[in-house]
Design brief:
Strand order of the largest sheet: 5-13-12-11-10-6-7
Strand content: 5-15%
Number of strands: 17
Number of helices: 15
Shape: globular
Amino acid sequence: MPSIGESSTGKLPSSKDFTKYLNKKSIIRRPDPNGNISKYGSNSSDMISLGLGHPSPDLFPFSKFGFNLAEYDNETDKIKESTFGEEISIGTKTAENSSVEPMGIVLQYGDGVGLRSLVKFFKEHVDQVHKPKYEDWTTVLTVGSTEGFDKICELFLEIGDSVIIDEFTYINAIITLRGHCANFVTVEKDDEGMIPEALDRVCTNWTGERPLRLIYLIPNGQNPTGTTMGIKRRQDIYQICQKHDLIIAEDDPYCFLQFGGLPVVEPSEETEEYFSKLPGVKGTLPSLMSMDVDGRVLRLDTVSKILAPSLRTGWVSGQKKLVDIIQSHIETSSSRANGVSSGMISRLFNDHWGHDGFEKHIIFLQKQYLSRRNVLLKAVEKYLGGMATYTLPDCGMFLWLELNLPPSVASEPGIMDKIVDSMVENNVLLIPGSQSSPAIDAESVKDAPYLRATFARAEKKDMPIAIERLAQVLEKYGCKR
C-alpha cells in the first residue's frame, strides 16, 4: 500500500475504489434527472424553457436581503449593539465585482452540490489547507456536519453493521448511528484521543459476521473529552485504517479553534507576543484528509463554530465517487443547503474576506477561545486542585474532568445523578460524561465519574464563580483539594 504522502509519479494518483463497501441503497441511488435537464438552459440565453417547474424569480416576494457585520468590543467581550459594521447584501442582479449568484439563483431550486460560488471557495480552501493527495476529489455543501455524517452512514451501513468510535464521543453522532441500527465498537483513549494499538487490536480480533468498514473520529478538540491528536497519532491511526481497509469519517468542527500548544497564563500575560504564536488557518495540525492517499477519508466541515450554528451550512470533501452519491441523496432529502445562508456566507467569504480575511477571522476566534480557556483553567487550578484530573485542552471548547471521588462514594449507586442534582441546586451546570457514551446498557455507565465543562458560552467573569460552586458541590461528596 502507498505510504502517507508517497507518490510514485509526479502526477496525483486516482483514489482507491471503495464501491464494494456501498450498501444496497447507495448502489441503486441515482442522480436527480432534473440536474441533466437544467444544464441546457444555462448554456444559452436564447433558450425558452417550458421544462422544469421552477417558480419565476419575478414572483419571489423579495428584492434584496442583507446583513451587517458585527463590531466586537474588546473591553466588554461583547458585540457593539449600538453600531453596525459593513453591510453585505444580495439583490436581483449580481453585485458589482462579485462572483456570488443573484437572488434569482440563490432562492431557486438547485442540485445537491449547493451554491456554486460557495462550493468554489470551500474547494479552494480544501486545496490550500488539506492538499488532497489524489486527483479525483470533490466537495458538496450540507446542512451542517450532522447531516453530512448521516449521509456518510447512508452510504455504507446496513442494519446491524458495526461502527468504530471513541468510548466517549459526540452525542449526535451516537444518535445518528442508532438511527441507522448500527452497533458500536468502542476503542480506548488517552490524552491524545483514540489509541492506535487499541484500534489495531480491535480490528485484528474482530469476529463479527460482517466486516468493520467505518470509523468515526473527531481529531481536534474532541467532543466531549477535548483531546487533540498529535501528528504522529494521526499518522498511526491512518495507517491502521489502511491496514484494515476502513473508511474514515473525519468530523472536524473544532479544527480552526486550535491553540498551538500555548500554556495557560493569567490575563495580564496575554500579550500580543503570546497571541502571535496562534496557528491561524495555515498553522493548524495536518488533517487526516491531508494524509489520505487512498480516498478513504470523508471529511466533514462546518461554519457552526466559526460563524453561527443556525446557518446550518457545512461541507463534505472526499473522493468523487462517494461524494457524488452523497449529492444524489441530498437531492432527495434536504434538496440542497439553504440558499439564503449559502448566499450570505458566499458574499462574506468571496467578496469581503477572501482567504486572507478568513485567516484573520480565525485568529480572532482563536484569541477569544484561548483567553476563555485560560480563565476556566486558572479557576480549576484555584478551586478544584486535586478534586479532579484533566488533560489541558489545546483546541476546541471543552474540558473533560475525571472526578477523584473517594472509593466509598464512587461506588454508591446513582452517585452521578446526585452530583448533577446538587450542581443544579448550586446554580452551576456541567454535562455528565455518561451522556456521551454509546453503551447500550445505560446503567453500566451512568456513574462514570466524568463531567464535561465548556468555556464557549459563559462570560469570563462568571467562569470562576461556576468552578467555585462546583468545588462546593464536590466537597460535599468527599473530594479533596
